[in-house]
Write a structure and sequence with these properties.
Layout lengths: L1 H5 L1 H7 L10 H10 L3 H4 L2 H5 L1 E4 L3 E4 H45 L4 H16 L3 E6 L8 H11 L5 E4 L3 H8 L6 E7 L6 E7 L12 H17 L3
Antiparallel strand pairs: 1-2, 3-6, 4-5, 5-6
């Protein structure tokens, strides 16, 4: 009686066929998909069925399942380690920008602001340079270049991330490495100038970057710079 009941699921597959019909691999596959508990009820088959393996010869389904499970565990551990690394990097960057904003609020001149930006961003985040280019004054960007630059790089936003042309790099950063950059317009009405931050790594600043920390930095600079610049 037990043998009959143990084979009841299997007979479901062959009952629709007559003696002259051969089961195809698709039929077997369909049956196993419809009956995922089949090997649970017939666990002895797992050890008997052998499958070819490119490195180990023939192995049982149990061995294959175990190896697949180990691979999934390794993949999950790798992804977890990646997330932990990214979280630590993000925490470091957040702390740097928080300290930077506090230091900027203590500055009393544009020169101090410039020095603080360079000191913090270059030393603690290993960026190439940080510069403030004003729109007025003896060292200001020429008006025509201001207009062309802002129309090209700041059409619908106060931020730009990515790569610049050679002329643009020279205009903002001189001879400093600037393979990728983060730029922001300064002033509530975009009238003060541009803060440029550059990296020697072409993939460091990308267009899809989040602007939260730079928005906070922009807000601090918009508070302290107008009086320093005589606005």
């Amino acid at each position: 009686m037990s043998e009959v009941s143990g084979q009841s699921n299997a007979t479901q597959l062959i009952e629709p066929f007559d003696d002259t019909t051969e089961l195809s691999s698709a039929d077997v596959r369909a049956f196993l998909l419809q009956n995922p508990e089949f090997f649970t009820e017939h666990a002895d088959l797992l050890e008997k069925i052998k499958l070819p393996h490119e490195h180990k010869g023939s192995v049982s389904l149990v061995e294959i399942q175990s190896e697949q499970l180990r691979q999934k565990v390794r993949q999950l551990n790798f992804k977890l380690n990646q997330l932990v690394t990214i979280a630590k990097q993000n925490e470091k960057i957040y702390r740097v920008y928080t300290d930077l904003n506090v230091q900027l609020l203590r500055c009393e001149s544009v020169a101090e602001v410039q020095f603080t930006l360079e000191d913090v961003l270059q030393e603690r985040l290993q960026l190439s340079s940080a510069v403030i280019k004003s729109f007025k004054g003896p060292h200001a960007i020429p008006e025509l270049q201001q207009r062309l630059f802002t129309e090209k790089r700041f059409k619908n936003t106060n931020f730009f991330f990515g790569r610049l042309s050679q002329h643009e790099r020279q205009l903002l950063f001189g001879e400093s490495p600037a393979e990728s950059v983060a730029l922001m317009l300064l002033g509530d009405n975009r009238e003060l100038g541009i803060l440029g931050i550059s990296s020697s790594d072409a993939s460091h600043f990308t267009p899809d970057m989040d602007t939260l920390l730079l928005q906070q930095l922009q807000q601090v600079l918009n508070i302290i710079l107008p009086e320093m610049m005589g606005y």
